[in-house]
Amino acid sequence: MASLHQLLVASSRTFAVGIRILPRPLRREVTVAYLLLRVSDYLEDNRELGAEEKIALLQSWRSVLEGAGEPQLLIERLREAREDIPDALVARHATSVLEGLDGLAPDAKEILIRRVSESSAGMARWTERGSRFETEADLDDYMHEVAGRVGHLLTELFTLRLPGTRKAGERMMSLGREFGLALQTVNVIRGLHEDRDRGWVYVPAAFVPDPRIHPSELFEPDNQDAAMAVLARLVEKADGHLAAARAYIRLIPRRYHRVRLFCLLPLFFAVRTLAISRANPDVLKRETKMTRLEVKAITRRAMVFGFSNGWIESYCGRLASSPPAQDGESAHSAAQRTPPAPQQISSP
Length: 348
Prior knowledge:
Layout: H1 4-11, H2 13-21, H3 26-45, H4 51-65, H5 71-78, H6 86-92, H7 94-102, H8 106-129, H9 136-161, H10 169-190, H11 192-197, H12 224-250, H13 257-277, H14 292-305, H15 309-321, H16 331-336
Helix pairs in contact: 1-2, 1-3, 1-6, 2-3, 2-13, 3-6, 3-7, 3-8, 3-9, 4-8, 8-9, 9-10, 10-12, 10-13, 12-13, 13-14, 13-15
C-alpha cells in the first residue's frame, strides 16, 4: 500500500514541494485533499470511460466520501484504472487516500468531505452537459467546480488552523475562488492542444472573433489569426484572476510564512507559464512549460523573499515580462536579459 507522501510526489512533484512546506497538521490535511481531488479528476478526465459511467462513478465517489455508499465496489473499479497518468495512479490507491481521510481530525475531515463532494457533483454535471461553453460565464462555472471550490476548501482549512486569518475569512473566501480560477485559466491555456485531442475545447464561443468558426476549428492553420485572438482573451482573463490571487496572499499574515510560500509557488509558476504562453502560437501545437531550472530558481527566491508583499508584486512583474528561458537558463537569468524599463525623472 503506497504512502500518502509517495502518491503525492508521484502525482505532482510541483505541488509536493509546496505541500511539504506547510506546517502540521495542514500538511497532512492538504495532502489528503489534493489526493481526493485527483481521484475526482480521474473519474472526470480519463479516456477509458464513457460519459454515463463517469457520472455514475462520480456519484458513487460522493456517496463513499459522505459515508452513504459501499466503498468496496468503487475501490475495485478504481483498481482497474489502466492509464499511465498521475490521476489513474492515485485512483488505483484510493484505499490509502480514504484511510488518510479517516485519520484526520473531525473538523478538517468534514471540510474535505463537503468540498470534494461539491466539486465531484459539479464535475458530474459538466460531464453530462458536455464541452459547450457559449459564454465566459459558462467557462467560469466549470472552472468554479474544478478549481474555485478548491480555493474555498483551502481557505476553510487556513481559517481553521491559522487564527490570524479569521478576521479576513470572508474576503479570503471570495479571493480564494478567484485564485482557483487563475490557476485553472492558465491550465486551460497550457492544455489547449491536449484537451482538443480528447474532445474538449475550453474556449467560450463568445471569445472567437468570427462566429463562423467553431472553437474546435481554431487549431486549423487557416484560423490562426482567430486562435491568437482567443489566446489573447484567455491571457487577459488569467491576468485579472492572478491579480486577485496576489490580493489573497497579502491577507495571509507574514508570520504564517510557510503558508504564504505554499500559495506563492503556484502563483509564480502560473505567472511565468502565462508569460511563456502570451502571443505564442506554439500553445496551439504543444504544451508550453517552464524549465526545471526556472522552477528551482523561483522556489529558491520565494523562500527567501516571500515574506515581503512589495517583493511579490515586483517579482510577478519580472516573471511576466522576461523572455522565455533558453536551454539551461533559469527564469531569473532570463529576466536579466530583459532591458530595464526607463526610469522616470521626477520634476524639480
